[in-house]
TrEMBL record, chain B:
Entry keyword set: ATP-binding, Nucleotide-binding, Transport
Assigned protein family: Belongs to the ABC transporter superfamily.
GO biological process, one term: peptide transport
InterPro entries from the UniProt entry: AAA+_ATPase, ABC_transporter-like_ATP-bd, Oligopep_ABC_C, P-loop_NTPase
GO MF annotations, alphabetized: ATP binding; ATP hydrolysis activity
Residue span, ABC transporter domain: 18-268
Gene3D superfamilies assigned: P-loop containing nucleotide triphosphate hydrolases
PANTHER family linked: MALTOSE ABC TRANSPORTER, ATP-BINDING PROTEIN, OLIGOPEPTIDE/DIPEPTIDE ABC TRANSPORTER, ATPASE SUBUNIT
Protein name: Dipeptide/oligopeptide/nickel ABC transporter ATP-binding protein
PROSITE patterns: ABC_TRANSPORTER_2
From TrEMBL, chain C:
Keywords, comma-separated and alphabetical: Cell membrane, Membrane, Transmembrane, Transmembrane helix, Transport
Regions crossing the membrane: 17-38, 79-104, 111-135, 141-159, 197-222, 252-273
The name this protein goes by in its record: ABC transmembrane type-1 domain-containing protein
Annotated stretches, region: Disordered: 284-313
Domain of life of the source: Bacteria
Principal cellular location given in the protein's record: membrane
A GO biological-process term: transmembrane transport
Taxonomic lineage from the root: Bacteria, Bacillati, Bacillota, Clostridia, Eubacteriales
PROSITE patterns (UniProt xref): ABC_TM1
Species for this entry: Clostridium thermosuccinogenes
One Pfam family cited in the UniProt record for this chain: BPD_transp_1
Membrane topology type: Multi-pass membrane protein
Amino acid sequence: MTDKTNVNDKTDAKVPLVELNNLEMNFYKSKGMFRKPQELNALHNINLKIHNGEIVVVVGESGSGKTTLANVIAGLLTPVSGTYKFKGKEIHSMTKEEANVYRSSIQVVQQDSYAALNPMRTMIKSLGDPMLLKKYATKDNLLEKVNEVLEAVDLTPTEHFINKYPHQMSGGQRQRALIARALSMNPELILADEPVSMIDVSLRVSILNLLARLNEERNIAILYITHDLATARYVGKNGRIAVMYLGEIVETGDLQEVLSNPQHPYLRALLTAVPIPNPRLSRKRKELQLNASSELPDISNMPSGCRFHTRCMYCKDICKVKHPEPVKHGSSIVTCHLVDELPKFELFTEDVAGA
Amino acid sequence: MQASEKKQVQTQDVEPILKIRDLCVDYFLPNGILRAVNHVNLDVPTGKITGLVGESGSGKTTLTSAILRTVSNPGKITKGSILFGEKDIVSLSDKELREYRWRDVAMVFQAAQNCLNPTMTLQEQFIETYLAHKKDMSEKEIIEHVKKLLRAVRLDADRVLKSYPHEMSGGMKQRIMIAFAQLLEPEILFLDEPTTALDVITQDYIFRILKTVHQIKGTTMVLSTHDIAVVATLCDYMVVMYGGNIVEFGNIYDMFEQPCHPYTQLLIQAAPSLIGDVKERAAIPGTAPDLMQERKGCIFADRCPYADDICRQVEPETRVVSEEHTVACHKEIRGKAI
Amino acid sequence: MEVIKSFFKTMYDNKQAFVGMIILLFFVVMATFGPMVVPLDLSTDFLNRYQWPSFAHPLGTDYVGNDLFQQIVHGSRSVLYIGLLASLFTVILGFALGALAGFAGGIIDKVISLMIQILLSVPIFPIQLIIAVIFPIRNVIMLAVVLACLSWGLLARNVRATILSLKQREFVLICRIMGLPKRHIIFKEILPNITPYLASVFVLNTNAAIATSVGLMMLGMAPYEPTHWSIMLSNASVQANSGTNTAGIFNMLVPTAAFVLLQMSLVFFANGLDEALNPRLRASSSYKPDKKKKQNTPARKNTEQGGTHHASI
């Protein structure tokens, strides 16, 4: 059980909650019975720190490795090399008790709320049993505890939802139930993997606000994984962002900074591609600059040098040959050879007030 | 505010390509009748891109199905007409339907992956589909035609034609579906959440392709989605649906800058955006309406911040706000641009 | 309690399942109490052979003048016993082995899968015959065992496959992430998803078991019970020269009808069972804002004078 102090200073703890260093993750694709399986690199040189009560947003398309990263942090996958430290202790060398604490401290909220709930069990069972098993509640106060956690996610009136099956609830309600379940374990970190992608756009903001509120009120760190940059700002107002491409983190830094002053060409491309709910502004936006119609490369056929060079409009010879190392640029860290030479990024073609 | 149909002031107009009048679609379920589309009146502007916006359960998918006459049991079109030129789609015979579908209107579905036959090469599928409708071209000519379409969606025609669907990525399949839909050069192209399963960059790419196709061919397009930002980016007109009703329709700029229906205002306010103040975003309170209950008053009254007694008793009529802007609401509310 | 109440409600709502349940109940009552109430007189009475239904003989008489109704009632006991017992053994065996294979994995899984493969590729009936010859069947229990010992393959394979797929489902993964004990995952998360399947398999297997038992009896490998419906049918068929002697039509029709009715009721009941035990399939949803009676009229029409949404350019 964690000690809940009312410390709002998010950078208080010196030791980060989660620390990943030089993480590598590979998958093996079998090439038939007689050939060596092909090694596919899913994560490369991942360096990421999450502090207590911090919000980190990971942005990437499908195929960028963001889900693999989530699985590694959740403990479902073991990285091939690199270190993964939880509160300063390396995961491998944890004792059984320490491992248990680590497991309960990180809770996951998945994308598909329908698949993440047992269709045969009502809410009181799905939410209550884990609490009983981990001794966060007793038989006597179970109902009270479940009500507490349902109220925390605005599933009220709670009596209404206690006996519901998943298929009797709407998508948004199920997603809140997932968050409630994660909350019931008193986590220090909630890993939200595309929690709003399967929900109608008009409902997304409320779920994102809920996550942001939980972070503020309970000092729970949040790792929010998404492919939709527009939603990033709603959770991570005061947080950090990491942009992933083909298994690497190509840019990372303070969220507001990075979004207003993006460096990496991929991030710039993303920013020009996200639709804006404003017809005038969206038509004033500069056109997406990507190299021809190149699709996202397959990880079985990883580009040489910089992984983004096949689609990058600024691509130079060095980009095709040499893999760039992450360098500090202002307050962000960018993985690009040309980071000092890139022109200033402008989202709109004219000076648009209020942008 | 009584509006009459006589108020259709059409100056230098083009006749709308599709005129929907008083359309109702009901689903006959074991525990009641669900009204999915409720007295919809709509003129689809010719040669423009119209966005059809609504959450799940708003009736937009059913409306699109009704126009294509693909509403299946237990659903039925119970009232109204859909005029395409002179023909009423609702009363077409099976034979006429087969000609109408894909030749006059075509559709690009959500998650295109499941629409292609996995056992045939794409070339075979294109040819087969074409010949099923028209027999005026030889196979060679059809292939040339298809190659042009594929190039218009920025695909490598030679490679694509020889491949099987499973060899293509999601984005490529979606583009193939757009090419497919254009095969017989339909007058209207319907798109149902065409980019939901795709990432942002591919989505932007497909939008630009759609815009190009639209500019070159002048095809009328109707894009159905729950993402209002997509509509803002791509469309010329917007139709907002709620609980089976059309609550507002208008020119895209009018709709975003002066939304008159509270639901439209709330939708715009709820959409996450890259720009603008984060605090201004707010969710829409309440839950979706129960479409099986008997309707009393405005369907949105339960969730509307401006609702009062008249809203709860009397169903609002559609009134004209300006030349290209109509709304179904009792109140006179003009929203702010956000 | 909730489960039982909603179970009956679902059965009632699904008319077909309800009918099946009633008929099945009728047979169960007949099998349990019938033989105590209805006498059995198997003395031959040739004068009365092939009688049509009358007050004295509600279903007519057979080729030796015995009352058909009495025979059906007495025969129902052995038919039902054998069917249900054999099915029960099959389900227990199939489920146990399938679950073991699915949960344990590794070498146990491989061994059991091999056994299943073999079972499914060989013709079972001849082997059952051979077993019946080697171990002469003296009573119902043994018959049930013989029937079950080779028919569990399909069920085990399905159970194993279901468990393997359930293990990968997200709601199970999240239990692992939450660190919940294995015991909980197996019994509280995965198994409830299999129970509806098992229940309906049990009911349907009864059909198969009855059919097989008939085969064994006809070939004399199982204890001969003259009132067993299959025996009735086979004797009647022989005596009536397979139906060419039209007088014996009733004699053949009655046991056939009894079989058909029983099997139909089993199938209908199984359908309803599946629906009743699976909350997702239940037609009624308690998520209605207010409990109004069924509305048979759609929404009020009020927009006849409504305007048209259009662009008047």
